[in-house]
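> forwarded from #structure-qc
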């Protein structure tokens, strides 16, 4: 680019260098935030997958009982599986958390080849030290145990189990285990973290106690490298290899990742929304500044025309500066995004990410830089072209309907303020009223949507019925814990207890997929499950499934499934979608994964089980009389002789054996993830106030002559300030009229999407009172913002302003 155009372009760059640098910095800051959030969302979404790859996480678990090493190696050879680990589960109970499992590695592969833990604190246990253990961080958090703490245990011996005696005695071994390390496994990120996970024992412990403490199971944990087809192939080989053995069972450990992935999905969605909101806010901020700055070339149009430059040549003068702004802003944004990368991922995704630190997502940076450069260059060139087309002699001004309305039967201050709010003006008197209206509407929309979302989440969190607790308290049955019957263990004679029901559940398979089978039995009154869609089962052949179960099986209400437990199987028709509450804090039950059948249906798939098979777990569900607390219930239940004797013989957590509603971990993680919502709301508020403030400041500066005319007609300073106040109020009212209903719709849609994702019902809460407070709050805020430009407008000197015009 040479000749006069080049000279003018260089001169424009030199003369406007400070403004150019300021625009580059603004573009860079906005671009850094948006690109970092997008890259963080992508990194969050892949964090669990990377964790599984680094850890060698297993995706198939085989309960093989006691088996020979030769048969295991033969299975590995036939299945072409190079990564498999064998663990031995001991009959050990922790006094601090009774349901945690204790296991040792049998062949030197678990914890090294597969399921490699990430050390969070301390060190790994010495294989030659029988009293050293590592625990999962979930167990450490639940029990407040740390490095150096001791786990007290009670055990069962092989001789006891052979006699059918599962009550620990004082003469049994009571190893005291010292914690030397805290580790993180996939289960520590998931719903199963509530169960405490696994305490990893050493090889020396196995040698010292394998003949003294009973071993309940040998689990073969396999990492199948392929997809679903390979997983099915390996599973079929496992069934042929071990299927005829007593105690053989195929388990699906992938639910260990389910809850964590759900939480990561919510965080990822929140980051995408944040990036979108930041991009919108940034576009408005950058657009306003860029258009205002590059519109200044209008003042030189007459001079350049006199020099003989055509319209296109006059527009081309701004091209070099546009390239500088675009390239400089894109480069700044890329470097800034890399600098901000250590802040991401967030929450559960950050715990899963195996390599938190500085990262460069070149796909995001490349596409982002191209998009940013294209948008900026296009905006600047369009502004320059528009400025070149303006004839400075053209001072015509169209009269709008607003002008007519503003002067009709309104007080002068109101009429002037409303007119200024809607009149964009022309040339040097132009005011960005459109961006002010859009910004105000978006701000109100964002705040309203966040209020609807967080209020709906609060209702879900505070309403146990919505996540499955349709009763007040539960008591783990100790009189007949493995039988599904109508016994009450004496609770029907306990003061303060109203309706009583029994809940039985056991492991089962639905269409070959492992899940949990539930059944509700009314004993006194009716206690029913929470049905999200359809209805609850009423006949023997009907079943209600959770959302995750339906999705995994690719089924819907009205389809049929084959349900199997033990050696019995039956076809059921799906009649509803339901949720499954956590019965205790340590319960690993997934909120949306399981099946509910009638008591008769439960009996059909358990008809081959013996009374003492141990396949069924039974809880008694209670509705309490008004004024009776769970603490009171605990004292009265422990006065029942059978419960008192069990509490004396077997240490257990009273709050888990007899307790009230327990919020599922899925909801707790959602509450954690939703903490980003107020940040989004704040960003939207800043966007709205910035847009309104810019319009008001532009009004005060660019319409000085109009204010001078008003003062010449008799306006005093108070009336001038009132005019700006009415302009601000008009902007707020229009933003409220558009933003409130739009925000309710957006917030409702967002909540329904999240609620459907975790499997709960579509219960939306609109905080009408809180939303109503937005009206005075918005008007107050914009008037506070208007106070400074209004004061400046009120100080306009009439003679100087009219002379300058």
């Amino acid at each position: 680019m040479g000749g006069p155009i080049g000279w003018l372009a260089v001169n424009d760059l030199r003369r406007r260098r400070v403004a150019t640098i300021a625009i580059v910095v603004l573009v860079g800051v906005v671009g850094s935030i948006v690109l970092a959030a997008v890259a963080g969302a992508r990194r969050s979404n892949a964090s669990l997958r990377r964790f599984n790859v680094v850890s060698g996480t297993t995706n198939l678990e085989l309960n093989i009982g006691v088996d020979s090493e030769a048969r295991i190696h033969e299975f590995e050879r036939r299945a072409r599986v190079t990564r498999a680990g064998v663990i031995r589960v001991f009959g050990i109970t922790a006094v601090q958390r009774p349901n945690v499992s204790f296991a040792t590695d049998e062949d030197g592969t678990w914890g090294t080849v597969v399921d490699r833990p990430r050390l969070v604190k301390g060190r790994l246990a010495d294989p030659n030290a029988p009293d050293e253990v590592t625990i999962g961080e979930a167990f450490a958090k639940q029990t407040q145990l740390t490095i150096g703490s001791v786990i007290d245990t009670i055990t069962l011996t092989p001789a006891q189990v052979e006699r059918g005696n599962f009550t620990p005695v004082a003469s049994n071994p009571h190893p005291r285990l010292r914690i030397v390390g805290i580790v993180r496994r996939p289960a520590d990120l998931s719903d199963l973290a509530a169960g405490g996970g696994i305490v990893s024992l050493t090889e020396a412990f196995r040698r010292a106690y394998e003949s003294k403490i009973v071993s309940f199971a040998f689990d073969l944990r396999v990492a199948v490298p392929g997809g679903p087809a390979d997983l099915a192939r390996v599973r079929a080989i496992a069934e042929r290899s071990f299927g005829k053995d007593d105690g053989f069972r195929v388990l699906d450990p992938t639910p260990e990742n389910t809850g964590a992935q759900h939480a990561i999905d919510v965080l990822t969605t929140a980051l995408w929304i944040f990036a979108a909101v930041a991009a919108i806010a940034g576009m408005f901020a950058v657009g306003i500044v860029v258009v205002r700055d590059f519109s200044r070339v209008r003042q030189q149009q007459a001079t350049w025309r006199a020099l003989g430059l055509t319209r296109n040549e006059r527009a081309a003068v701004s091209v070099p500066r546009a390239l500088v702004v675009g390239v400089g802003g894109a480069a700044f944004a890329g470097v800034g995004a890399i600098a901000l990368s250590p802040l991401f991922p967030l929450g559960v995704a950050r715990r899963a990410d195996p390599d938190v630190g500085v990262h460069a997502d070149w796909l995001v940076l490349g596409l982002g830089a191209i998009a940013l450069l294209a948008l900026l260059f296009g905006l600047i060139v369009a502004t320059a072209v528009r400025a070149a087309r303006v004839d400075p002699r053209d001072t015509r001004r169209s009269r709008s309907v607003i002008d007519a309305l503003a002067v009709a039967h309104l007080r002068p201050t109101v009429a002037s303020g409303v007119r200024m709010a809607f009149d964009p003006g022309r040339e040097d008197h132009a005011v960005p009223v459109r961006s002010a209206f859009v910004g105000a509407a978006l701000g109100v929309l964002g705040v309203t949507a966040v209020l609807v979302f967080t209020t709906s989440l609060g209702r879900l969190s505070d309403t146990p019925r919505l996540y499955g607790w349709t009763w007040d308290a539960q008591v783990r049955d100790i009189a007949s814990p493995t039988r599904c019957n109508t016994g009450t263990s004496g609770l029907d004679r306990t003061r303060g207890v109203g309706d009583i029901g029994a809940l039985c559940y056991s492991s089962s398979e639905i269409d070959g997929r492992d899940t949990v089978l539930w059944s509700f039995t009314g004993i006194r009154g009716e206690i029913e499950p929470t049905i999200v869609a359809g209805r609850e089962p009423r006949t023997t052949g009907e079943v209600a499934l959770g959302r995750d179960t339906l999705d995994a099986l690719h089924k819907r209400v009205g389809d049929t499934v084959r349900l199997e437990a033990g050696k019995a199987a039956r076809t059921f028709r799906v009649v509803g979608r339901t949720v499954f509450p956590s019965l205790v804090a340590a319960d690993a039950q997934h909120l949306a994964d399981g099946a509910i059948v009638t008591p008769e249906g439960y009996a059909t798939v358990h008809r081959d089980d013996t009374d003492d098979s141990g396949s069924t777990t039974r809880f008694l569900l209670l509705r309490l009389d008004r004024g009776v607390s769970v603490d009171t219930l605990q004292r009265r239940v422990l006065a029942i002789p059978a419960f008192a004797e069990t509490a004396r013989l077997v240490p257990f957590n009273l709050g888990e054996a007899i307790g009230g509603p327990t919020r599922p971990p899925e909801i707790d993680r959602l509450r954690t993830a939703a903490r980003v919502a107020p940040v989004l709301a704040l960003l939207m508020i800043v966007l709205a106030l910035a847009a309104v403030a810019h319009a008001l400041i532009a009004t005060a500066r660019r319409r000085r002559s109009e204010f001078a005319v008003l003062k010449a007609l008799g306006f005093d300073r108070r009336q001038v300030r009132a005019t700006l106040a009415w302009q601000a109020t008009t902007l707020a009212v229009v933003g409220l009229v558009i933003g409130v209903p739009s925000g309710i719709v957006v917030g409702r849609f967002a909540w329904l999407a999240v609620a459907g994702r975790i499997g709960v019902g579509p219960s939306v809460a609109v905080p009408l009172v809180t939303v109503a407070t937005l009206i005075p709050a918005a008007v107050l805020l914009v008037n506070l913002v208007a106070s400074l430009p209004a004061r400046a407008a009120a100080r306009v000197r009439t003679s100087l302003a009219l002379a300058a015009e």
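QC bot note: The first strand starts at residue 60 and ends at 63. Residues 392-398, 609-614, 800-804 have pLDDT under 50 and may be disordered.
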